[in-house]
């Protein structure tokens, strides 16, 4: 009772203080395009709003509203939280809607980088502070100096949760303007770059690097082309490359540069002592032009990027989409920080493991993951046999995959974020998929199939995409990195919370997404473990227990998924490459739309091992049904946990009969040999027309 009385008195006093001191709360700093400034507790780079109490008394924010609309001032409402004098409070504008005062706060809406009002309203409806619509580039904040009471300035060194003490700017420059769009051209031309402010200086590059006034003479980085692959081999010598910026003072000639010297394609991307995958002939090349405006007293503009192709054919020769990625080359190839090379991390592994031969499991710089190893890049797409770029946007780039990161050519994961300028790709990558609101895209090297067909996984997922589980769409493409031909990469969509939100229309923050043996990717494994324990403790032979499990997992989804993996002879499964998810609900919702009923569903991906990629001529004799129901395994590829669900469900007579009938039906339809052969024949054309990659072993 005493505690309740104290809480009541505290609340009354806090409200009283709020009425007196509300004017001392200010919107102090805002970021609407957070690409790399500060991550939230999930590791996501979300937009943010900073409040500051410049008064002499604490203020209780309970009942205050934050909003991006004057018509709805209480779009997000503060919990019971005090902001002390001189204290900063950071709120992420992430749409995650978190109001626990003991943890980070998140609004239920985001901030547009193009600009929209931000308003703070007290519980009585009084407008406490506001920020009018203001477009903000990536990682640039807009804040007051001095804190709380000063004039608004731009900051290129933001200070979330700290005083605004870094250099202030009155202006953010617009990007330069190019005279020609990116794409394929029939004949050489002169590119003119202009700006609407005659006082700016334009700096440009031709090698994909970021225009930088400190790199006029060239900036160097180190790399290696030889690593101690076998025990006892020497550590390779350091080599050096340079990238360069130029001051724009005259037109730039655009021509066919395919005969020029190779550069980044001659850098090792593996741990081999003597790499044999460097191209021995000149590769097709484009010219990536990147330009940026600079001016004293102003924040430099974002980078404008166009890639230009001029080949002897005089037109786009490719029957596949062409993708051009421009990126700071040392972000990929630097010995210390490049994520495309074995680099420092492999040499350190060798020092600690002097007697082990390198393998696909040996770590290198390419093993680095997480947002700290996401680098900004520019993405352009030219549709097949068209001339002009159809999609151009800034994005984040990481490597994708596990053991296949050790391959000469690697899979790339591309992130559209508001912090880079666009939250979505907004492009229909896959012809029969009209929803183009993609947030994550993969440029896949075909995984373990990177040096064989280049479409094994894509082919098999295409075969079964009509069944009752999710598959990844597929479109092959030709990739250029910094203007250099980099071979065929398959455009795929990544399975994550954004995919599930797009496809099923669910709240991506309200899901459990697990992989392998219940490892959370999103949410937690509480419900899944409860289901497994129920099966462990109750025989599925009993129809009552089995019927309960049908309310916990989508049986039809699971059955189709298992049959497809088994028929395809996927021996990189079931103890690997497995993901499953559910929308969190308090109980089973039988009338809910697909994916909304709270049951577990399985996702198919990474089927590179299907049809015997490593099984030799007799791969077809492998008993994958026995493999997928084996008891007592302890390790990859079929540990006991991975076969637990199927073998227990097969105890139930109803499931067993339906499983056998469904398998037979699919053998006579989906898996008919003439159907599969026709699909293989159709997909073979793309991989036979183009070199697999200039770096394939």
Kindly report how far apart the N and C termini lie: 75 Å
- Basic shape: globular
- The average pLDDT score comes to 91
Number of strands: 34
Count every helix, treating DSSP H or I runs of 4 or more residues as helices. Answer: 12
Spatial order of the strands forming the largest sheet: 24-25-26-27-28-30-29
How much strand? 15-25%
Into which percent range does the helicity of residues fall?
Answer: 10-25%
- Contiguous runs where pLDDT drops below 50 for at least 5 residues: 1-21
Structural class: alpha+beta
Itemize the secondary structure elements and their pairings.
Layout: H1 2-21, E1 25-31, E2 47-53, E3 59-60, E4 65-67, E5 76-77, E6 82-83, E7 88-93, E8 105-106, E9 118-121, E10 127-131, E11 141-145, E12 151-155, E13 177-178, E14 183-184, E15 189-191, E16 193-194, E17 201-205, E18 219-223, E19 239-243, E20 246-247, E21 252-254, E22 287-294, E23 304-309, E24 322-327, H2 329-333, H3 343-352, E25 375-382, E26 391-400, E27 411-415, E28 440-444, H4 456-464, E29 474-481, E30 484-493, H5 497-504, E31 511-515, E32 519-522, H6 526-537, H7 543-549, H8 555-567, E33 579-583, E34 601-603, H9 624-627, H10 640-649, H11 653-667, H12 673-689
Parallel strand pairs: 7-8, 14-23, 24-29
Antiparallel strand pairs: 1-2, 1-11, 2-7, 3-6, 4-5, 4-9, 9-10, 11-12, 13-16, 15-21, 17-20, 17-22, 18-19, 22-23, 24-25, 25-26, 26-27, 27-28, 28-30, 29-30, 31-32, 31-33, 33-34
């Amino acid at each position: 009772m005493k505690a309740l009385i104290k809480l009541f008195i505290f609340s009354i006093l806090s409200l009283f203080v709020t009425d007196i001191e509300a004017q001392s709360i200010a919107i102090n700093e805002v970021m609407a395009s957070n690409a790399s400034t500060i991550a939230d507790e999930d590791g996501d780079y979300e937009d943010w709003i900073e409040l500051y109490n410049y008064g002499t008394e604490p203020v209780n924010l309970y009942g205050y509203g934050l909003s991006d609309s004057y018509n709805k001032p209480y779009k997000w409402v503060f919990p019971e939280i005090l902001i002390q004098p001189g204290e900063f409070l950071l709120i992420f504008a992430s749409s995650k809607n978190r109001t626990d005062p003991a943890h980070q706060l998140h609004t239920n809406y985001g901030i547009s980088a193009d600009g929209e009002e931000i308003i703070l309203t007290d519980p009585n409806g009084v407008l406490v502070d506001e920020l009018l619509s203001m477009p903000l580039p990536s990682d640039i904040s807009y804040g007051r100096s001095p804190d709380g009471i000063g004039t608004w300035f731009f900051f290129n060194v933001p200070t979330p949760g700290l005083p605004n003490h870094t250099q202030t700017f009155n202006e953010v420059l617009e990007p330069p303007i190019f005279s020609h769009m990116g794409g394929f051209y029939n004949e050489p031309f002169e590119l003119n770059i202009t700006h609407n402010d005659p006082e700016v200086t334009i700096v440009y590059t031709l090698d994909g690097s970021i225009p930088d006034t400190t790199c006029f003479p060239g900036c160097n980085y180190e790399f290696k082309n030889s690593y101690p692959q076998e025990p006892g081999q020497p550590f390779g010598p350091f080599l050096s490359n340079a990238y360069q910026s130029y001051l724009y003072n005259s037109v730039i000639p655009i021509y066919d540069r395919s005969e020029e010297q190779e550069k980044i394609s001659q850098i090792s991307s593996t741990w081999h002592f003597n790499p044999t995958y460097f191209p021995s002939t000149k590769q097709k090349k484009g010219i990536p032009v990147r330009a940026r405006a600079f001016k004293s007293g102003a924040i430099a503009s974002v980078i404008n990027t166009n890639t230009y192709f001029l080949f002897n054919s005089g037109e786009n020769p490719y029957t596949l989409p062409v993708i051009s990625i421009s990126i700071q080359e040392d972000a990929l190839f630097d010995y210390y920080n490049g994520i495309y090379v074995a680099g420092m991390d492999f040499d350190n592994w060798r020092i600690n493991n002097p007697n082990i031969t390198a393998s696909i499991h040996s770590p290198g710089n390419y093993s680095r993951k997480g947002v700290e190893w996401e680098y900004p890049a520019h993405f352009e797409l030219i549709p097949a046999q068209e001339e002009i770029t159809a999609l151009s946007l800034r994005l984040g780039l990481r490597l994708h995959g596990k053991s296949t990161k050790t391959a000469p050519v690697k899979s790339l994961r591309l992130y559209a974020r508001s912090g880079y300028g666009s939250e979505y790709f907004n492009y229909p990558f896959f012809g029969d998929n009209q929803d183009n609101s993609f947030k994550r895209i993969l440029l896949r090297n075909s995984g373990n199939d990177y040096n064989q067909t280049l479409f094994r996984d894509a082919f098999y997922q295409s075969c079964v995409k009509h069944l009752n589980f999710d598959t990844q769409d597929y479109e092959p493409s030709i990739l250029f990195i910094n203007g250099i031909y980099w071979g065929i990469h398959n455009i795929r969509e990544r399975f994550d919370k954004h995919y599930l939100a797009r496809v099923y229309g669910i709240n991506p923050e309200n899901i459990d997404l697990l992989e392998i043996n219940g490892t959370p990717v999103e949410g937690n494994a509480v419900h899944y473990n409860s289901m497994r324990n129920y099966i462990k403790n109750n025989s599925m032979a009993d129809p009552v227990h089995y019927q309960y499990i049908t309310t916990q997992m989508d049986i039809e989804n699971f059955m189709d998924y298992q049959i497809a993996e088994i028929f395809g002879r996927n021996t990189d499964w079931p103890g690997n490459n497995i993901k499953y998810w559910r929308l969190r609900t308090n109980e089973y919702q039988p009338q809910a739309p697909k994916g909304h009923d709270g049951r577990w569903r399985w996702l198919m991906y990474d089927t590179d091992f299907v049809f015997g990629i490593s099984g030799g001529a007799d791969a077809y004799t492998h008993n994958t049904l026995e493999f997928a129901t084996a008891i007592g395994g302890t390790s990859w590829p079929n540990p006991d946990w991975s076969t637990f669900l199927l073998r227990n469900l097969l105890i139930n007579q109803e499931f067993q009969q339906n499983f056998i009938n469904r398998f037979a039906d699919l053998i006579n339809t989906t898996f008919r040999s003439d159907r599969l052969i026709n699909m293989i024949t159709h997909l073979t054309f793309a991989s036979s027309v183009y070199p697999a990659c200039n770096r394939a072993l």
